[in-house]
Amino acid sequence: MFIAADHRPTPLPIWCELPLDYRPTEVRVQWASNPWMQAQALRLRREVFCAEQGVFQDDDLDAIDARPDTRLLVACADLAGLPDEVVGTVRIHPEGEGLWWGSRLAVATAWRRHGQLGSGLIRLAVGSAHALGCTRFLAHVQPQNEALFRRLHWQTLDEVQIHGLPHRLMQADLAHYPPCHTPWAGLVLAQRSRP
């Protein structure tokens, strides 16, 4: 067999050329449905509340996380239509007749400019609790997030200290949160701005 000395293989066509800083444009907000989602959500909480904000020393887990009626919600960046990475989280739990609480809202630093993650997590948190009989939904909100909650139809009830830091006790106006009966499927958020 004779092969010419100057024969070079023909380069293959490029099928998909994504920028190196590619980020998915859609995020699904849902109840955590897999162990990897729960693990990544707890890791994100440690990053935000321990490493970044210093609210807790090593871990933010508490008795609420151990309760069987606590629900962990996640915002997952989708890749090819499948959840790939947890980029936001919040937890909810009932506390008596019709009363539900939300807490530990966290969004990954690189995703805070998405434009809808925090509000999407809040909408699903309140909407899914509403579907489960919630008649009053409360949260202790850090002051820097108070304006976001007000835009989402929350009212400030009081100023309190939680873990040595100022917080606002806030209540959701349930009239703006229709019941969500499919929290495992959740909702899809399109990106407004580049993360």
TrEMBL record:
Organism whose genome encodes this protein: Ideonella oryzae
All copies of domain N-acetyltransferase, residue ranges: 20-175
SUPFAM superfamilies: Acyl-CoA N-acyltransferases (Nat) (SSF55729)
Top-rank taxon: Bacteria
Transmembrane regions: none
Any single Pfam family the record assigns to this protein: Acetyltransf_1
This enzyme's EC code(s): 2.3.1.-
This protein's name: GNAT family N-acetyltransferase
Enzyme superclass (EC): transferase
GO MF entries: acyltransferase activity
Keyword entries, A-Z: Acyltransferase, Transferase
InterPro entries the UniProt entry points to: Acyl_CoA_acyltransferase, GNAT_dom, MSMEG_0567_GNAT
